[in-house]
Design brief:
heterodimer, A: 474 residues, alpha/beta, 7-stranded mixed beta sheet, globular, B: 62 residues, mainly alpha, 2 helices, 0% strand
């Protein structure tokens, strides 16, 4: 058995784990899990949930040769499931409010469908949802169980911590999802919510069902003679109370997401920037031609804004990471994906302080720089932000780009007398005289070969097409 | 207020929501029980007043 091919985040589940084998993704499961999932498959429900887009495409491995090799590599399992590979793994602390709300809806819809068939999700963590071709899907099949009681949902508390509380805090109390999740991978508990909210806020009607009353019950939990096992051991087939809970949660999640007010300044950038129509068209044409010539399989769009170039890359066949530090711009980009089946993963990441590797052994959740590496990186109208707001040198920018691209870089050079550069440095005393096109090319030439330098009409900006030198590969 | 000061580390997160759910489920369960009982009584009364039920109706009740 090899430990290296095990997926680092897959270690908590006692019923099995996920591993790679020859570029394919498998999950070994034990007998109890096989009975549950086998029952789901026999009813045809598993295939229906996959067809409806609620569950990631998955199938039982039945080919004898493959089974034998999997048993040899990872012995001790009753069955093996193969999952369709989701190449762009993202985490809730990088999602936008709409993405978290859609992930919540998929969790609730799945739970409702399972409940009707006598099953349930025993976990309701947002980490069990991934975005696949722009849509949320459930990925953790062993979380499905056959509970005795169908009138309550055991995972409700976790659902509230992972979905309801962060949506409440972003909608009403000015929080952001990175602050909520990054230091609490399992969300924030009731007691913490009680500390976050003032005593007056705790009794607001919108919090009654999810915070105020549960707190009241929790404070009296110690004195209860019954244990959770005793309560859950009782067989109840009446699903009406749980149906009510799920309906309430679904409308709550939808209204919290709909009520979120955008505040970002970047969402209107395309309307306020200094580009003429000719410059925009030339820039798009140049980038598109480069994509068509080099056909990158993966593109990382840094500073993607609302996604003009993200869509261009995706339409040229690339899998795209669309990354921006501004939540609202990314939220708009995510909205634009609706109805399209494009391999785009929009994420809120400040590239000057990318998401770190965190969780158990600091390996459970992978850092963004490792996940986001792509064949082509595009950094359009970004350089002046890195230099001024990010306080980075040209050399630091070069090292950042060299770290995240495996092959090419499209960089827009913004000179110091550009109106947007001047606006950024209006109240700065820092000297930027070293930021010239010549210097930039000199600095970048240690890690990149310059393929071409194209001037943009009506502007002093240039588009730089660069290929990473083999020696710069780390 | 609202039990913020209890020994947090020894309470499983989600306990409050779990107990609230069981309480609500209990109330709804009682409601369903009585509703079923009332239905039974009504159907019995209705049967006494009307014609005796046919075999089909008996079968559907089982």
């Amino acid at each position: 058995m090899t430990q290296d091919d095990r997926v680092a985040g897959s270690f908590r589940d006692p019923s099995g784990y996920v591993f790679w084998s020859k570029g394919r993704l498998f999950r070994g499961i034990d007998q109890a899990c096989l009975e549950t999932l086998g029952g789901l498959r026999k009813q045809g429900l598993l295939d229906r949930l996959i067809a409806e887009g609620l569950v990631v495409p998955s199938w039982f491995v039945e080919e004898e040769d493959l089974l034998q090799s999997l048993r040899a590599e990872h012995p001790g399992f009753s069955a093996y499931i193969e999952h369709e590979v989701i190449e762009s793994i993202s985490y809730p602390y990088e999602w936008t409010v709409s993405m978290l709300a859609h992930a919540a809806e998929v969790t609730l819809d799945l739970q409702a469908r399972l409940m009707q068939a006598g099953y349930a999700l025993k976990d309701a963590t947002a980490f069990n949802i991934q975005f696949h071709k722009g849509k949320p899907v459930f990925i953790d099949l062993p979380s499905i169980e056959r509970p005795k009681r169908l009138d309550i949902w055991y995972a409700l508390g976790q659902f509230q911590r992972m979905f309801v509380y962060p949506l409440l805090l972003t909608r009403h109390y000015g929080w952001d999802l990175a602050s909520y999740f990054q230091t609490r991978l399992d969300g924030r508990g009731l007691q913490e919510m009680a500390h976050i909210l003032s005593p007056g806020q705790r009794w607001h009607p919108r919090l009654w069902m999810d915070v105020s009353l549960p707190l009241l019950f929790e404070s009296r939990a110690g004195g209860k003679p019954q244990t959770g096992q005793e309560i859950l051991g009782k067989s109840v087939q009446n699903t009406a109370p749980q149906e009510m809970t799920l309906r309430r949660l679904r409308s709550k999640v939808a209204s919290l997401a709909a009520g979120y007010r955008r505040q970002g300044t970047w969402a209107h950038y395309e309307k306020t920037c200094t580009y003429s129509a000719t410059a925009t068209n030339t820039k798009k044409e140049l980038v598109k031609r480069y994509f068509q010539q080099t056909k990158p399989r993966s593109v990382l769009d840094l500073g993607c804004n609302t996604g003009e170039y993200t869509f261009l890359a995706a339409e040229c066949g690339a899998r795209v990471w669309a990354v921006d530090g501004d939540h609202d711009a990314v939220d708009i980009l995510y909205g634009r994906l609706k109805g399209k089946s494009l391999a785009v993963t929009p994420l809120v990441v400040n590239i000057c302080q990318p998401t770190p590797a965190i969780g158990f052994l600091n390996e459970e959740r992978v850092g963004f720089l490792e996940r986001g590496r792509s064949e082509c990186v595009i950094a359009l109208a970004l350089l002046h932000h890195l230099l001024v707001s990010g306080n980075l040198s040209l050399a630091a920018c070069r090292d950042l780009f060299a770290r995240v691209t495996t092959d090419s870089l499209i960089l827009e050079f913004v000179p110091t007398d550009d109106p947007m550069f001047l606006q950024l440095t209006k109240y700065r005393t820092t000297e930027f005289s070293g930021v010239t096109l010549k210097n930039c090319l000199d600095v970048f030439s240690s890690s990149f070969e310059v393929v071409s330098v194209e001037p943009l009409p009506d502007l002093k900006r240039h588009l730089l097409f660069l290929r990473k030198k083999a020696a710069a590969n780390s | 207020m609202l039990g913020v000061g209890i020994t947090v580390g020894y309470i499983d997160p989600g306990t409050g929501s779990f107990l609230l759910q069981t309480a609500i489920a209990g109330v709804i369960g009682v409601f369903f029980y009585f509703r079923a009982a009332v239905k039974r009584v009504v159907s019995l009364l209705f049967r006494r007043k009307g014609t005796p039920p046919s075999d089909d109706q008996n079968a559907s009740k089982e």
